[in-house]
């Protein structure tokens, strides 16, 4: 498609580099900005630049933060011996929004993915190992996606952590039928796991309260 | 949802002001930028700013352009007595990509839409009227969307142009069954229009060549 203007061509090209946004959508977004006050484009442009240039990662858990140590890691009322390993900041936000987890996190910054060329050295795995060696940690909860990449990363982490003397307990979040989901629509693997990892009825009753 | 960083909150807020992009998608896009080289964010940010601040509209047809008069309007080989009225630059691009239309355009910059608070004065209708008054135009082709807003704008334009002494011919693009479409799936209104506006078979044969 040929655009009637170089400036338009450039903005469409840049916007369509974002994942899931094609040239058509990019054009729609650019034309939308044209109808809005110039301030909106200035703020958008500035916010992107500030975010990309000034964002920090917490020195301890590697979550996105404005400070060197994030609010969660510097909160003394949390259980620092319980570390939940997640893929990225979205998972931290999802778990935090439940308000039920009182431990801390370790953000990997991705999953091991041979297809996408992501190896263990691209993630914060070495830093997790150092964290376990340098500080007393009671339990590591692996909370990664139930995908091939997630499983690969789980196994790699398990092996790495097992090599550490005085290794902590390692657990993984439960896989099963989602609350409110119907049994007949669940996939086979999930169904099998939910039966194999069944829990005492009294425990489940207590969690419904 | 609470974000762990002010910079992240700001960029998500700004990106999610774009149409069709929610907070979740905005977060995904922001995190994507974080994994890319800083240059990509700089280029994106700069392209948005340049586009919004420096883009011009052609003085004649009001299409987006880098010049005061666009390439189409300054092309002497085109028929300047034939003016196609469209909603925005995307329609110009769509018609231009067929390579079959040799007239010029008039870009309204939107459609009359009482619901969205867009009135005739928000569009370039007055300028179209002046253009017809000041220059010899043989035919105006109304090529607006077949929606309520499109029809409203069509009627308004027809009335406005009819008031001009020595008014040009006014035509509208054909509505009918799309080429390659199956009759049984067409909606009733389109089907009725396609029968009412039937054309001689010989003419249709010639267009298939």
What does this structure look like?
Chain A has about 210 residues and is of the alpha/beta class. Chain A has three domains: about 10-55, Orthogonal Bundle (Helicase, Ruva Protein, domain 3), CATH 1.10.8.420; about 80-175, Dna Topoisomerase Vi A Subunit, Chain: A, domain 2; about 180-209, no CATH class. Chain A is about 45% helix and about 10% strand. Chain A contains eight helices and six strands; from the N terminus they run αααβββαβαβαβαα. Chain A has helices spanning about 5-15, 25-35, 40-55, 90-100, 125-135, 150-160, 190-195, 200-205; strands at about 55, 65, 80-85, 105, 140, 170. In chain A, strand 1 and strand 2 (about 65) form a beta hairpin. Chains A and B meet through helix 1, helix 2, helix 3, strand 2 and helix 4 of A and helix 1, helix 2, helix 3, strand 2 and helix 4 of B.
The shape of chain A, in one word, is globular
**How many individual helices of chain A?**
8
Helix content of chain A: 40-55%
CATH class of the largest domain in chain A: Alpha Beta
What is Rg of chain A? 22 Å
Secondary structural class of chain A? alpha/beta
Poorly predicted ranges of chain A (pLDDT <50, ≥5 residues)? none
Instruction: Report how far apart the termini of chain A are.
Output: 59 Å
CATH architecture name of the largest domain in chain A: 3-Layer(aba) Sandwich
Strand order of the largest sheet of chain A: 4-3-5-6
**Tally of structural domains of chain A:** 3
Oligomer: homodimer
Query: What integer is the average pLDDT of chain A?
Result: 91
Strand-residue fraction of chain A? 5-15%
Largest interface: A-B, 61 and 61 residues
- In the CATH hierarchy, the third-tier topology of the largest domain in chain A is known as Dna Topoisomerase Vi A Subunit, Chain: A, domain 2
> What are the secondary-structure elements of chain A, in order, as H or E?
HHHEEEHEHEHEHH
- Number of strand elements of chain A: 6
The biggest sheet of chain A, with number of strands, parallel, antiparallel or mixed sense and barrel status, is: 4 strands, parallel
